[in-house]
Design brief:
The protein has 464 residues and is α/β, with parallel strands linked by helices. 38% of the residues lie in helices and 17% in strands. The strands form 5 sheets. Strands 8-7-15-16-17-14-18 form a 7-stranded mixed beta sheet, sandwiched between helices. Its main location: cytoplasm.
Length: 464
């Protein structure tokens, strides 16, 4: 029986281990922390368990849904409230336009786009439909650079930045377009227009919501994977940090962790980003990361979901410290029902996110105290909901911090990731050990990229 060691117990490592184990490999999984799941984890308030990290998956491809079906979880898939989210800008709050991908509008002249951009900037965005295509497939640009060129900087600032900031914790000018959406750039070149690319991608996507989740939260995926791995005979080592790949005595190794750790394990020095990249430009530090403050409030005024399923905040809206707010009980019906069953009507769960991977030590976020974060959340909540919500209405709260699982997705980082994969492949072709990599640092962020990439990585091991 072939023996494979998987280092890293996040969703990538678990997915790869499951793919190998069900195909008959003897798998040993090593996780440095005391739990599995990485950025997918549960948190409970008033005995209602929700996600503390990643809460949904993109449905633009069937990859995640297929995986859930293979695990026997397809009957637990749920869609969010179709109301959708709003954008919080410096001068207004408005529903997110309905025709976009990553905030890029498929119809720049639509009324909901014009309501945010204004007539002049909307007209500038429509120029994309006629302008010659000057980008080429060989280039590896940032999302912001492409959108600003094709549709104007106002589209980046008012439509795209709130989404990349809230979802990717990144500046659109630092986020590789291939990391944000693998097909958008290729489709734009094929269509000769960014707007037409967005329209084509939306038309090709499966019908229904752009994201989905699981009843009980995405954290149920982790408990299911762990249970099935143990049934398949996988040995799981928690609180076990691997320092020497060669000591594992495995036929193959999958490194499902971030680039710095991978470079250390394969005996390569870490290659820092170039001076023009985000690490230097924004002063990234060990305190960069995000903090999520989840609030349980009794607030009848919120029963009407005044801002849909939540808010994505433009970085230029400096009167608000949070980068995003999710009205959890408005977004997921099962959460609203659980709260009502447990506590009665008019109870709401809301999650506010603070910090970005490019934040400096002085920013409110990962390194801030629980007290400071709660204070900021309660200050921002009325501004984000448009309603008065007082401290007396707060029944409970939690603070969760995330630093790992946020690879940034810069063009330099994506290039570094590709070089590592090529180096490992060349080593193996020359007779070296079979070592593969997986995880968001290599695939790009989001379960829709991480899960299929991890399955492909496992299949590569199985095919040799």
């Amino acid at each position: 029986m072939n023996r494979t060691a998987v280092i890293g117990g996040g969703i990538a490592g678990l997915t790869a281990a499951w793919e190998l184990a069900r195909s008959g490999h003897q798998v040993e999984l090593y996780e440095a922390s005391g739990r599995l799941g990485g950025a997918i984890a549960p948190v409970s308030l008033a005995q209602v368990q929700v996600d503390a990290g990643a809460e949904a998956f993109a449905t633009r491809t069937p990859a995640v849904r297929d995986f859930l079906r293979d695990l026997g979880l397809d009957q637990q898939v749920v869609s969010p409230n179709p109301l959708g989210a709003w954008l919080q800008l410096p001068d207004q709050a408005a529903p997110m336009p309905s025709t976009g991908v990553l905030g890029v509008p498929g119809d720049p002249g639509a009324e909901d786009v014009m309501a945010i951009l204004g007539a002049e900037q909307a007209a500038r965005a429509t120029q994309d439909l006629e302008a010659p295509m000057t980008w080429s497939q060989e280039q590896r640009p940032a999302l912001g650079d492409v959108v600003a060129d094709r549709m104007g900087p106002a589209v980046v600032e008012r439509l795209v930045a709130p989404i990349t900031s809230g979802v990717h914790s990144a500046d659109p000018y630092d986020l590789a377009i291939s990391s944000a959406h693998p097909e958008l750039y290729r489709t734009m070149i094929a269509e000769g227009s960014l707007a037409r690319a967005v329209t084509a991608l939306r038309a090709a996507a499966p019908a229904g919501s752009a994201v989905q989740s699981l009843h009980g939260g995405m954290n149920t995926l982790i408990s299911t994977l762990e249970a099935q791995l143990r049934e398949l005979g996988t040995t799981i080592h928690l609180n076990t940090e691997v320092h020497d790949v060669g000591a594992l005595q495995a036929d193959a190794v999958i490194l499902a962790t971030e680039g710095r750790q991978v470079n250390r394990l394969i005996g390569q020095p870490h290659e820092p980003s170039q001076p023009h990249q985000p690490a230097a430009r924004h002063g990234m530090s060990r305190n960069s990361g995000v903090a999520l403050v989840t609030l349980l409030v009794h607030a009848p005024a919120l029963d009407g979901w005044p801002r849909g399923t939540g808010m994505l905040v433009a970085p230029t809206a400096d009167h608000i410290q949070a980068k995003a707010m999710t009205h959890i009980s408005a977004k997921w019906e099962w959460v609203a029902r659980a709260l009502e069953d447990q506590l009665g009507p008019s109870h709401h769960l809301l999650r506010l996110s603070f910090g970005r991977v490019t934040d400096t030590d002085g920013s409110l976020g990962f390194a801030s105290s629980d007290t400071a974060l709660l204070s900021a959340a309660m200050t921002d909540l009325p501004a984000l909901t448009g309603l008065t919500v007082t401290g007396e209405q707060l029944l409970d709260h939690t603070v969760v911090r995330w630093q790992t699982g946020l690879p940034g997705g810069s063009t330099q980082q994506r290039s570094d990731a590709q070089r590592i994969r090529e180096r490992l492949s060349a080593r193996h072709s020359a007779g070296g050990p079979q070592i593969a990599v997986a995880g968001a640092w290599f695939s790009g962020t989001g379960l829709a990229q991480v899960i299929p990439d991890a399955r492909r990585t496992a299949q590569q091991i199985l095919s040799r």
